[in-house]
Amino acid sequence: MLTDARSYNPTVSHTHKYKRDPTKSASRNNISWRAVWKDPAGQRQTKAGFPTKAAADRFLEHVTADLVSGSYTDPRRALTTFGRLAERWFRTLRDKSPNTIAGYRSLLDVHVLPRWGVVPLGDIDNLGLSEWLAELPLSLSRRRQAFRVVTAVLRLAIRNSYIAKNPAEGITLPEPPKRDRYLTPFEVARLADALTPVYDALVLVMAFGGLRWGEAVALRRRDIDIQRGRLMVSRSLVEKPGGGFMFKGTKTDRARTAAVPPGVVDRLVRHLSGISDDPEDLVFTSREGRPLRRSNFNRRYWKPALDVAGLENVTPHDLRHTSVAFLIAAGAPALQIQIHAGHSSAKVTLDRYGHLFPDAFDTTRGLLENLYREGTAELEAR
Q1: Do 54 and 85 belong to one domain?
Q2: CA-CA distance, 188 to 208, in Å (whole number)?
Q3: Claim to verify: residue 153 and residue 198 sit in the same structural domain
Q4: Domains identified in the chain, total number
Q5: Does residue 124 fall inside a structural domain?
Q6: How far apart are CA 224 and CA 211, in angstroms?
Q7: 79-106: buried (b, 16+ CB within 10 Å) or exposed (e) per residue?
Q8: 6 — phi, psi (to 5°)?
Q9: How far apart are the C-alpha atoms of 244 and 13, rounded to whole Å?
Q10: Rounded mean pLDDT of 198-222?
Q11: Domain finish residue from 109, 141, 159
C-alpha cells in the first residue's frame, strides 16, 4: 500500500461548464473545478463539478487523507443501494436455521427495505437510522432484530470497501426485560409426574441435563450412555417454516456431554423400554413416531400438565434455566456450568446467570479468611 500522499498524484484543474463560447469564456461562472487522484490500484479517478478551487481542494484533502490512512473507498461504490447489497448479504445465510432465515426475510421485506432499499450506502447517516428505529412500530425485541439486520449489511459494506465508516456506530437499544422462571425441585417433580408416562423423561432431561428443546428432541438412542449417566448432545431438531424438519448443529456448533443423575437415568430406562431398539431412532417422538413438534407438544401435553401441576407462566425453555439454577445452588463452578449448559464461554454463563450467585462475595470472603488464618497460625507456631 502506498503511504506517501504524493504517490496518489492529487491535482485540481478547471473545466468549462459549456462548450466554448467567445461571449462566455472570460466569465468565472463558466468554470467548474475537478479533483483528480489515483486510487490504491493506481487507476486514475476524478470528481468534477466543484464551484470553486477551494471546494475541490478540500475534497481532495479528505480523499488523500483516506488514501494514506488506508480507509479510502471508491466514491462510486458508495452509490450502491442498500437494497442491492442487502440481497447479496441475505444469500450468504444458507447455514442459518430455516426459522432464522425466514425471520430475516420478513424483517427485510416489511421494515428494512421499504425505508432503506433504494438509498445509496453513502447517504445513510446516524441520525436517519436513529429516527427510523424510534419510529418502527415494533416491540423492543423486534426492533433490536431489525437493527441487527441493518448493521450486518453495513458491516459487510465496510469489509468490502463500499463505505469507510459505519453510520450505525454509537446507536444502542436498551436490553429487553428478561423473563426467567426458575422452578424448584418440587415443581419439576410435579410437572414430570403430570406428564407420566409419556414425556416425564423429557422434562427431567431438560431440567437436569440442561438441554435446549431442539437438542432434547434430537436425541437418538445411541446418544444415551445409561451406565455412566451421560447424554451426547451433538445436534438440534429445527422446524422448517411451513412444515417439515431438519437436523443441524447445536447453537454453538459444538458437541458436548451432559450428565444426568441416577434418578433421571432410571426414568430414561423406563422410557427406553417402550420404544424401538434401533440406535438411530429418536428418543422422544410424537404418538405417531414422528419428530416432536413444539406447538403440538405445548397444546396437547405441556399446558394440560401445567394445570395439573398447578403451575403458571412456565415454558419448556424455563427447564434449561432451571438446570443452571440447580447447579449454581449446588455450588458448581462457573466453568463446570458452562460445559454442562453448552455455553460458548464461562463469561456467557456469568453474564446470563450472574444474578443467581448471591453468596459469591460471602464465599470468597470465607475462602480468604481461611487462608488468612492458615498464615497467621503458622506464624504464631514459630
Answers
A1: no
A2: 9
A3: no
A4: 3
A5: yes
A6: 13
A7: ebbbbebbeebbeeeeeebbeebebbee
A8: -65, -20
A9: 65
A10: 94
A11: 159
Same domain, 18 and 85: no
Q: Are residues 208 and 277 in the same domain?
A: yes
- In the chain, pLDDT over 70 holds for what percent of residues? 87
Mind listing the pLDDT tens digit for each residue in 20-42?
444 444 445 567 888 888 877 77
C-alpha cell read off for 118: 433504494
Place of cell 401435553: 301
* Closest to 296 in 3D by CA, of 234, 288, 321, 283: 288
| Domain co-membership, 204 together with 271 | yes
Question: Grid cell 442498500 — which residue?
Answer: 82
**pLDDT band, residue 60 (cuts 50/70/90):** confident
List the grid coordinates of 231: 447424554
Q: Give the three cell numbers for residue 3.
A: 503511504
Please give the residue that has the higher pLDDT: either 63 or 274: 274
pTM: 0.63
Query: What would the pLDDT profile of 292-317 be if each residue is shown by its tens digit?
Result: 999 999 999 999 999 999 999 899 99
Q: Is residue 365 part of a domain?
A: no
* 99 and 153 share one domain: yes
Q: What is the CATH number of the domain that holds 132?
A: 1.10.150.130
User: What's 81-132 look like in SS3?
Assistant: EHHHHHHHHHCCCCCCCHHHHHHHHHHHHHHHHHHHCCCEHHHCCHHHHHHH
pLDDT of residue 364: 63
Q: Is residue 366 part of a domain?
A: no
What DSSP letter does each residue of 280-334 carry, written as one string? TSBSSB-TTSSBPPHHHHIIIIIHHHHHHHT--S--HHHHHHHHHHHHHHTT--H
Any domain includes 361: no
> 67 is in which domain, residue-wise?
5-72
Compute the distance between CA of residue 214 and CA of residue 251 in angstroms, rounded to an integer.
Answer: 10
> What's the average model confidence in pLDDT over 168-175?
88
- Last residue in a domain, options 38, 72, 106: 72
Strands 224-225 and 245-248, bridge-based pairing:
unpaired
